[in-house]
Amino acid sequence: MHFGFTDDELLLRDAVRALFERECPPDVVRAAWDAESLDRRVWDALAQMGVPGVLVAEASGGLGLDELSLVLLLEESGRAALPHPMVETAAVAAPLLGAGLGARLVATDLGGVLVPCAGDADLLLLRAPDGLRAFERAAVTVVPEPTVDRARRAGLVQCRPEDGTLVTGDEGAIDLAFDRGALGTAAQLVGLAQRMLELTVAYAKERRQFGVPIGSFQAVKHRLADALLQVEFARPAVHRAAWSVAHDVADRARDVSMAKAMASDAALHVAGAALQCHGAIGYTVEYDLHLWMKRAWALARAWGDGGWHRDRVGRAIGV
User: Fold this and answer.
1) How many domains, the chain?
2) Residue 43 lies in a domain
3) Judging by DSSP bridges, how do beta strands 106-108 and 123-128 pair with one another?
4) Span 163-170, mean pLDDT?
5) What H or E segment, with its residue span, contains residue 133?
6) How many CB atoms lie within 10 A of CB 187?
7) Domain that holds residue 310
8) From 49-63, 205-219, 231-245, the region with the lowest mean pLDDT
9) Torsion sign (Cα): 238, 263, 184, 51
10) 182-198 per-position pLDDT tens digit
């Protein structure tokens, strides 16, 4: 299997990166931790670009692209530590709901019982005894839950199934929605790992000990080189999984689980290296590193942790 990203896909990625750098700096992520409601300016800008509708057919008002296009954008959302539910909306809900989604935020419990942005979402996609149902925000009760990454604004959702609209009762469609969510989360983990590595390399060039930058020390070089290898091994696995989902291959679930396991491991490894290389400053909430590090800790366990996905790979290959 051989694939490469098209010039249009790369241009769209670059445009989204520029938007995040302009509209979603660390201050915006930090503000989401304690805000009464989520600031939607960056999300509205993404909606104007058509990003939430990447997987929606053009005839239904979307961009009519596939998961290979979306995975690059989700990497960028991880790199920016975007506090909005981009995976849940663009990767999971949009292919199921299609037209009419617009700039609405969607939350879902497919990735776990703690639902990110549950209180901020316009629509919630929740499991029910007969399948997957869509609930308006007013039809559910959200109990906020404190988590390590408060920018995810997670909560427990209480609802009555009869208050929601059945979206699908097809378990195959629900499994595909889960795989899209796991794939999207893996992409975000790669973006998070990349940003933590960039921050740490920049810090190692500036921080001086014994009259020289700490980045000149062999131990620091080795630590960062190992971290880079983790990212460079995980990224192709995520892209391969995106290709498998886009082309509906028989081994889709295996490839998605491989990607999620590798991306989770990579992000956790890079987070550990970044914290060690930063030293004491890395532990402070005033320093931006923790925004990415805590997001990595949370996402590594969302949509199935590394152990769960390795078990699924093992079952797929008969181990």
Assistant:
1) 1
2) no
3) parallel
4) 97
5) strand 131-136
6) 32
7) 172-316
8) 205-219
9) negative
10) 999 999 999 999 999 99
Cα gap 156→287, rounded to integer Å: 29
Angle made by CA atoms 154, 82, 262, in degrees to the nearest 5: 85
Is 38 domain-assigned?
no
Q: How confident is the model at residue 15 (pLDDT cuts 50, 70, 90)?
A: very high
Using the CB atoms, write b or e for 110-120: b if 16+ within 10 Å: bbbebbbbbbb
Domain harbouring 217, CATH code: 1.20.140.10
Banded pLDDT at 2 (limits 50, 70, 90): low
Q: Label residue 49 exposed, middle or buried (CB < 10 Å: 0-12, 13-18, 19+).
A: middle
The band of 282, judged by pLDDT with boundaries at 50, 70 and 90, is confident
Nearest to 151 by CA among 96, 188, 194, 110: 188
- DSSP code, position 115: B
Mean pLDDT (whole number) for 300-307:
97
32 burial (CB, 10 Å; 0-12 / 13-18 / 19+) is buried
Cα separation values, 318 from 193, 254, 313, Å? 31, 11, 9
Residue with token string 């993404």: 46
User: What is the Cα–Cα distance from 281 to 36, expressed in whole angstroms?
Assistant: 29
Q: Is residue 54 part of a domain?
A: no
**Residue pLDDT, tens place only, 97-148:** 987 788 999 999 999 999 999 999 999 999 999 999 999 999 999 999 999 9
| Residue given tokens 């408060």 in the structure block | 150
Which residue, among 70, 75, 32, has the nearest Cα to 51 in the 3D structure?
70
pLDDT band at 32 (very low <50, low <70, confident <90, very high): very high
* Cβ-based burial of 261 (10 A; exposed 0-12, middle 13-18, buried ≥19): buried
Residues contacting 206, CB < 8 A, separation 6+ = 213
Q: What is the mean pLDDT of residues 150-178?
A: 97
Q: SS3 for 196?
A: helix
In a domain, 147, yes or no: no
